């Protein structure tokens, strides 16, 4: 007797080859499908002179910022530095912004820092590492 299996008609059975799973059309190939991946959120921190806080709050609002926190702060430059003609009273703005809007917001802030008299400041972003609650995320990302 041989170790090869035979069908009842005397032929050897064909080997079963596992078929690769069918690929779904990717989002790149299908422009009709909308991406369901969530937007990443960033915390935009802006430190500016207190007298210009309202202007910068309105500017950032135009970039679909849904949450802003305004906190009073003080600069570290002492009055002994005579060449600093800046006001020590500062305002720190904490804004939650989507990653796709952050680059445009930072560019607008950089432009305003360079062109507005007495409106110099700093701005940077910090990424969110996690979010608790779908409704909280939808509110902060302005996604319905």
Features:
144 residues, alpha+beta, 4-stranded antiparallel sheet, 4 strands, 24% helix
The helix-strand sequence is: EHEEHEH
**Regarding quaternary structure, how should these chains be classified?**
single chain
CATH topology: Alpha-Beta Plaits
Level of helix content? 10-25%
CATH class: Alpha Beta
Brief rundown of the structure:
The protein is of the alpha+beta class and 144 residues long. The chain has a single domain, classed as Alpha-Beta Plaits (2-Layer Sandwich), CATH 3.30.70.
Account of the protein in words:
This protein is of the alpha+beta class and 144 residues long. It has a single domain (41-141), classed as Alpha-Beta Plaits (2-Layer Sandwich), CATH 3.30.70.120. The chain contains three helices and four strands; from the N terminus they run E-H-E-E-H-E-H. It has helices at residues 53-61, 99-115, 134-141, and strands spanning 41-49, 67-74, 89-98, 122-127. The longest helix is centred in the C-terminal third of the chain and has 17 residues, at 99-115.
């Amino acid at each position: 007797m041989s170790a090869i299996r035979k069908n009842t008609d005397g032929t050897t059975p064909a080997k079963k080859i596992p078929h690769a799973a069918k690929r779904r059309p990717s989002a790149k190939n299908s422009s009709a499908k909308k991406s369901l991946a969530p937007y990443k959120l960033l915390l935009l921190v802006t430190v500016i002179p207190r007298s210009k806080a309202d202007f910068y709050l309105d500017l950032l609002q135009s970039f679909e910022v849904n949450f802003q926190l305004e906190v009073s702060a003080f600069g570290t430059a002492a009055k002994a530095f005579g060449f600093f003609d800046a006001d020590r009273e500062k305002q720190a703005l904490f804004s939650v912004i989507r990653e796709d809007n952050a680059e445009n917001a930072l560019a607008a802030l950089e432009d305003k820092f360079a062109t507005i008299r007495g409106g110099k400041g700093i701005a940077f972003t910090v990424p969110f590492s996690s979010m608790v609650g779908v409704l909280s995320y939808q509110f902060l990302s302005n996604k319905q």
